[in-house]
Design goal:
With 387 residues, this protein is α/β, with parallel strands linked by helices. The protein has 10 helices and 13 strands. 31% of the residues lie in helices and 20% in strands. Strands 8-10-9-11-12-13 form a 6-stranded mixed beta sheet. Strands 3, 4, 5, 6 and 7 form a 5-stranded parallel beta sheet that branches. The protein has a two-stranded antiparallel sheet with strand order 1-2. It is elongated and about 85 Å long.
Length: 387
């Protein structure tokens, strides 16, 4: 008599038809469905030897007395909806701590994993390709790198082409004069223009995914160079995120957070051709902060929110609403002050909004627009012409 003890995987696999196991492998793409694992189960990562390291795990245990077992165990033993593909390590994890991994959680993970695979494979490759723009310029004394895993997670279900556009300057001096700002702006312009004209790997750019950190005026200029003729997704860096691979992912569904932007005409100077637009979204901008720059000949408009905060921007719908209000204000300013007026932007905004401020500009319609940089006790100073 064969008294060899059956392994847990043999017990859990029993009676599961071959076609059901095949379906599970295909819909899981041969990867562990434990959230955050995603390891391929067809290969030993250490030896690189190809073998079947996957295990068919039961959400409701295969027996009443097994992990998460219930009165339904017998009926669900071979049901596809009750099966997960897991690596050996994650299988042991969920079965050794059933309180931490209840059936409801495991079902959610299975559905999320298989839905992700379905999205990635249900469209032709080109539909979901995007050219990544990584823009990192020193702010004060700090350069903030953009994590590869973070931007790939943020883009899903889009995915990056092999070669994107990288604009990186760790030595930029924001205290330089206007000629230094202008010189680096031309570098940005050439980089974006040549990429659009020549393509990436000789393929025409069809979509941009923009991840940018830098001084506000340069972000606005970057947005102007990208424009709105190519479909573009802008992303926002978020603070206080425990998972560093999700720092660039939007933090809320579009319907969960709504922001009411407040547009204030603070002062209308008669026959004024100088117009200041104060963008007080990440922080308040009181008059004393721009008193050194904005004199009595200026008209002043403001876009703000009820409680300015650098963390207020949670979803792309808020960005879209800002874009609408900002574009409407630019039209209003031109109608009131004429095409020959000069507009000066005084910003305290999230990085994605700064880029959007440049993207919405119309080459043949808008008057001259200048971006200002804030220097603490010195106040605001005009540093760069945007258009």
């Amino acid at each position: 008599m064969n008294t060899k003890k059956k392994s847990k995987s043999e017990i859990n696999d029993r009676n599961v038809p071959q076609h059901t196991r095949l379906k599970l492998w295909v819909k899981a793409a041969g990867r562990c469905e434990f959230r955050g694992c995603n390891e391929p189960v067809w290969q030993n990562k250490l030896t690189l030897r190809d073998r079947n390291f996957g295990e068919v795990a039961h959400i409701i245990g295969s027996s009443k007395d097994g992990p998460r077992g219930s009165e339904e165990s017998a009926d669900l033993r071979i049901a596809y909806s009750n099966l997960m593909l897991l690596c050996q390590r994650c299988h042991k994890e969920i079965d050794d701590d059933t309180d931490k991994y209840p059936p409801e959680l495991l079902r959610q993970w299975k559905q999320e994993h298989e839905k992700r695979i379905e999205i990635q494979t249900s469209h032709s490759e080109d539909i979901h390709k995007s050219t990544v723009v990584l823009f990192t310029v020193k702010i004060k004394d700090r350069v903030t790198p953009i994590n590869r895993a973070a931007y790939r997670n943020a883009m899903f279900p889009m995915y990056p082409v092999d070669e994107g556009i990288k604009i990186d300057n760790q030595d930029f001096n924001r205290h330089g004069d206007e000629s230094e700002w202008e010189a680096y702006a031309r570098v940005i312009e050439r980089k974006i223009k040549s990429s659009i004209e020549e393509g990436i790997d000789e393929k025409k750019i069809k979509h941009f995914s923009v991840f940018a950190i830098g001084p506000m005026p340069l972000l606005m200029f970057l947005g102007k160079c990208i424009g709105d003729t190519i479909s573009t997704d802008l992303y926002q860096s978020h603070r206080n995120i425990k998972d560093t691979s999700k720092t660039w992912s939007w933090q809320a569904e579009e319907g969960e957070v709504h922001t009411s932007y407040i547009v204030n005409p603070i002062k209308i100077a008669e026959k004024s051709e100088n117009v200041a637009i104060v963008l007080a979204l990440s922080d308040t901008i009181e008059k004393d902060k721009y008193a050194n720059f904005v004199d009595d000949n200026f008209s002043i408009y403001e876009i703000t929110i009820k409680e300015p905060d650098p963390r207020f921007l949670k979803n792309p719908k808020q960005l879209e609403h800002f874009s609408y209000e900002y574009r409407k204000l630019l039209n209003q300013v031109q109608a009131t002050h004429g095409h020959r007026c000069r507009i000066y932007i005084l910003p305290a905004v999230p990085v994605s909004i700064a880029v959007e401020c440049g993207r919405v500009l119309l080459p043949t319609k808008d008057p001259e627009i200048f971006a200002c940089e804030y220097y603490g006790q010195e106040g605001f100073r005009k540093v760069l012409k945007i258009n």
